[in-house]
Amino acid sequence: MLQATTTEFSHVKPEDTQYVSGGLRDFFLYRDLGIAEATHGKVIAHLVKANMAPEKGTGWHRHEAEFQIVIMLKGWARFMYEDKETLVQAGDCVHQRPGIRHYLFDYSPDMEYLEIVSPADFKSIDVEPVCDIPEPTPWN
């Protein structure tokens, strides 16, 4: 017998939602995939892509979230996770454990990733710097 569920069926096509500004970072564009609505706020899934060249990056922060993964679809991004520099390239999947202090400081012009986070209304909290940040790669 099938179990009752508290989520809804969702099917979002590329033409259903557009990339928009106004998300967590102004130098990225975000495309909602309808998961927050379908899960009644339990999970958010969105596509994120570069909109402007990196200047200062995200700054040191952590998320108040139970679960977060980033799957790089195109291009690359360089993060600091605590004091470890990490290059995330197309095809890579990163699980960001709850509370990990991190800083996205560099990315390619074609960078695009899928981010899945629970809960949908997760918070981003600024934290004290962990270490120095390398310079971003200039866009030409």
UniProtKB/TrEMBL annotation:
Task: Please indicate which superkingdom the organism of origin belongs to.
Answer: Bacteria
An example of a Pfam family matching this protein is Cupin_2
Can you name this protein?
A: Quercetin dioxygenase-like cupin family protein
Q: Which organism is this entry from? A: Rhodoferax ferrireducens
Q: InterPro entries under this entry?
A: Cupin_2, RmlC-like_jellyroll, RmlC_Cupin_sf
Domain (Cupin type-2): give its ranges: 51-104
